[in-house]
Amino acid sequence: MADSGCLPGLAAEVPKIRDAPRHTLLVRLTHWLTAACFFALLVSGMEIVVSHPRFYWGEAGNALTPPLFHIPIPSSRATVPTGYKLVLPDQNGWSRALHFQTAWVVELTGLLYLIYGVFTGHFRRNLVPPGKEFSGTIRRVLGNHLRFRRPDAAEAASYNVLQRLSYLLVIFALFPLAVWTGLAMSPAIVSVFPALVTTLGGQQSARTIHFLVSLALVLFVVVHIAMIFLAGFRVRMRAMIGGRAGSQ
Amino acid sequence: MGNFSRRKAIVSGLAATAGATGVAVAARLAARYGLVPPDDGGIYGPGESLTYASQRLLTRHSMAREFSPSQISKLPFANATDPPDAAFEQLRAGGFAGWRVSVNGMVARPASFSLADLRSYPVRSQITHLACEEGWSFIAEWTGVPLSHVLSLVGALPQARYVVYFSQQKGWWDSIDMDDALHPQTLLTYGMNGGDLPVGNGGPVRLRVPRQLGYKSVKYIARLTVTDSLKKFGKGLGSVEPEYGYAWYAGM
Q1: What are B166's strand-pairing partners?
Q2: pLDDT digits (tens, 9 = 90+) for B87-134
């Protein structure tokens, strides 16, 4: 019984699914660009954190003020009280350059994807959960997940409701929040748009939220990759690289 | 099939040509309007250039955020710097009475100014954020003379494009474009939180550029050079920072 919101009845035609188009070229392209960017942002972001692994709330915070929390790692600066004698080498220069250059790439990629998603109905069709039988679907999909059951044939052609919700969260909440909090740390940007930072409670709050959003994105990526392995690595990779749905 | 792939080839060819032309035109326009940073080479050049060009266009008339006195940090953190040289210590022993800030280059009347001179000029005090690229920050009240006033005293020439500034500490120098140099909040500061500017925070004179990160606010300012090109300074990257991988433009 196929209950995918967008491709009803497809389950009965499993052989056809194998070669059915799954991901469009633009979705595949933006997906892999974003994946590469995420990796670059993560590595450079971690290096930037190493230069001051303390997080504050409000407008200002430094080694003399109590942190909201800190990461128990050595720092690349001797001035940061970490409890370690070890001072790591300074990698902040290239890390910042890579971080900002990648931010440009991922933001332009995101913009392209956003325009595509709105104008082709990709968001409406593939990401917004189907309204009817919503709670029933979510219960069934959740049950399948908890029992580590492989997705049924219908899911080979579209996203299940949990996927839809987590993708929506990443695309419309976490990603924009990462961009917003990133911009809110820029003294030049907030000189033009002060509300970007005042609404967050200050520049240090923006930095802290930026870090927490990154953690949430890392968690998403870990689960995302785990799911690909659980759901069938080859089939999922073939879908996102070659664009064909495939089946189990 | 043959027709289809030929059409595809023509369309992609046209798109590639249009793209390349677009990038070339954008680069020409950016160079003409002073939107290309001196450290535009290397693998991170495109990112630096995009950031500088877009933020320069956006921030032409913007003002750094100013805060209320109650927001001033109780403990202004001073990053440790290498102790300035023996000449600095000698000047410090004399209460910096002998400190001079000289201004030369593309100016009608090269001059040098004592602390007393700087103090006699119009005063501006502003409570601004100093954010270090490492991630920490503090808020303080900075007092000084707008750099624009000093530049008008020496008669900076109209073809000037950058102001290069040198610390008393050897090898520490930086530069800003004229937009930042003439910006009302760019100050040669000699005071902080109502007192003299402490040495730890860059005293006796620190150039404060509050719309950029802390490292653009070079401490112990001894000399400024007005110029139309940064090519002859250091490695031609606009400051010593890019030689260590840090961006010349630090608005972000």
Answers
A1: B173, B223
A2: 999 999 999 999 999 999 999 999 999 999 999 999 999 999 999 999
Give CA–CA dist A43/A97, Å, rounded. Answer: 12
Element (H, E) at B146: strand B137-146
Q: Are the C-beta atoms of B245 and B215 separated by less than 8 Å?
A: no
Q: Where are the alpha helices (DSSP H) in A12-158?
A: 14-19, 25-50, 92-120, 122, 134-146, 153-157
Task: Please state the ipTM of this predicted complex.
Answer: 0.90
pTM: 0.89
CB contact under 8 A, B129 and A192: no
Class of residue A92 by CB neighbours under 10 A (exposed 0-12, middle 13-18, buried 19+): buried
- Helix then strand then coil, in percent of chain B rounded to 5, is 35, 25, 45
For residue range B26-79, what is the model confidence (pLDDT) as tens digits?
Answer: 888 888 888 999 999 999 999 999 999 999 999 988 999 999 999 999 888 887
Please count the residue pairs, one from chain A and one from chain B, whose beta carbons lie less than 8 angstroms apart. 123
- The whole-angstrom separation of Cα A236 and Cα A156 is 8
For tokens 């670059």, what's the residue?
A: A40
A54, A61, A93: residue with CB nearest B246: A93
CB of B185 closer than 8 Å to CB of B63: yes
Q: What are the beta bridge partners of residue A33?
A: none
**Residues A125, A110: Cα–Cα separation, whole Å:** 18
Q: Which residues contact A157 (CB under 8 A, 6 or more apart)?
A: A4, A7, A10, A17, A20, A22, A245
B62 and chain A: CB distance < 8 Å anywhere?
A: yes
- Rounded distance, CA A101 to CA A36, Å? 13
